[in-house]
Give the backbone structure.
Amino acid sequence: LLFRHARSRNYVLESDVYKLESVPLDFGDYHPLKPITVTESKTKKMSRKGSTSSTSSSSSSSMMDPLSSVLDGTDPLSLFAAAADPVTTTASMDSIRKKRDKDDGSAVGSDFEQWSSKRGEILARYTTTEKLSINLYMGSEKGKGSTSGSAVSEKVRTRLEELDDLEEGSQKELLNLTQQDYMNRIEELNQSLKDAWSSDQKVKALKIVIQCSKLLSDTTVIQFYPSKFVLITDILDTFGKLVYERILSMCMDSRVSLSDNFSPETVNDTAKETCLNWFFKIASIRELIPRFYVEAAILKCNKFLSKTGISECLPRLTSVIRGIGDPLVAVYARAYLCRVGMEVAPQLKESLNKNFFDFLLTFKQIHGDTVQNQLIVQCVEIPLYLTLYSPAIDWILQCIAYRAPEVLLTEMMERCKKLGNNALLLNSVMSAFRAEFIAARSMDFIGMIKECDESGFPKHLLFRSLGLNLALADPPENDHLQILNEAWKVITKLKNPQDYINCAEVWVEYTCKHFTKREVNTVLADVIKHMTPDRAFEDAYPQLQSIIQKVITYIYDFSLLFSVEKFLPFLDMFQKESVRVEVCKCIMESFIKHQQESTKDPVILNALLHICKTMHDSVNALTLEDEKRLLAALINGFIKMVSFGRDFEQQLSFYVEARSVFCNLEPVLIQLIHSVNQLAMETRKVMRGNHSRKTAAFVR
């Protein structure tokens, strides 16, 4: 056989010889939507020592482009670029936008609770069974048949017609909508906004936003207003984001984007002109409320115009809210301004503070004749009406209190005192500021709570808010007992079981944290006393479960826990089997986690045997295998922790009882067999391998 070796080759040299000739591209003239010039490179194969290449540009006479021939030389993208401002949709733009959104979101720390986390709670809490109405924008069909190649004058004429239509107010009113229908219509409007924007109908998009903003001046179904605010501001947020991204895309020059912290000087004139155009359009809106909301929605766009744009607009918009007469509508407008302000300029706390202090100056309007007459017409009680303010005031104060110094809390407390210790404000203050600040002034807050007028906002809710703070931070040690006494005096007098258990659940943690089993026993006894009549406990299982969890978190010495006289009677309130089993699992998990040494305490054994039997008896033919394994593991953990030392007969007696009680769980029976075998080996070990008649009989 003849073997041929592969010829040696110089791949680097060959690559240089055969590579296509590079054609320099002038980026100063570059635009992705310009007509395409196809360049053909022809390479002739020559000897290996050299090569020549000829390059010729394609034209209409040579190398015809099939797409251009079909379109008669017209490129639809080029026409689109000539008719409208180009919108860059490249992948690089998306990545830049994501990065910028991330940077903007990191302006406040992770310890700041975002609005999105409150949205679901507000929608679930503020509902209505009354019929609602909504005005829908009925878009004009004019100009929809025009092609992309229409003249610029035609486009201008169409937009002028749309602006006239905007002034005339082409809309349709839908009446007698249920809450779900109303929410569906709002979602349709949100989608219509996106569709109009994507189809380059900017005026139509603006009109939809204006119509939605007008809905926020309507308080005919007042108890639904907080939820309406959430739904409408979702649309405003969408609009603000679309406008900002549109202007940002216009700042792309030669595929080079703005830096993350760009200055207005780096923004091109076209983007600035478009940005100003949006603000001029919004300034021409005649009604105050839609003009305020739409301008607040695009507040971030001021970054394109000047460095001080946002800092100048925030105080002006704060003053604009003074023109809103309805105090409920005004406070939610302030909440939206705070929300936008925290997103775009969280460092401008002075404007946020001014916003809240303006609200305090107009707070007396809540008790004015206009509001009272409105409540009479809608048959709404003042306590219910005041709860409508909570989401807005809580949010405003959360923005103000975020990383604020302790001196601001002192100022807020003084202002609350000047307003007669208004309970609504006091509750929001305790919810907003850091728990350490509130706990340090616990007795001051208790004094203010006692002086509050209870007609509008119940005192027990104030004590609940105080208790939530004390669960997170400790008050001065000398005040522990006095605080508990003052709080429990109010809580124990509550007649409504649901109000009572909502407060008691919070203060049980404070009691377990700072006091002995005697005080814990007293609190548990009081809970049993209030929740047993009329089987009120059946409607409070989540709160009762929470109480058990808190007790075993702080009292994990089970000999001490079961010496609390009212603990086992408290467990008897869990009548529903699924809930009772969950509570038993919780107790056994705590026992296995914290019990370090084996036990033979009869109190612990009897109580835990009863708890394990409850878990075992819940097993039936429908129980899942995973659930069986979990229950068996908990019971086995208990069995392993039982030891009677050298009293082997007592140990065997326990195993025999366990076998009869836990006969339906095979893993438990296996554990018992191993334990009995181990007991026999322990007996042999003690007798050193020489059984007596008694031990031999015992082992057999």
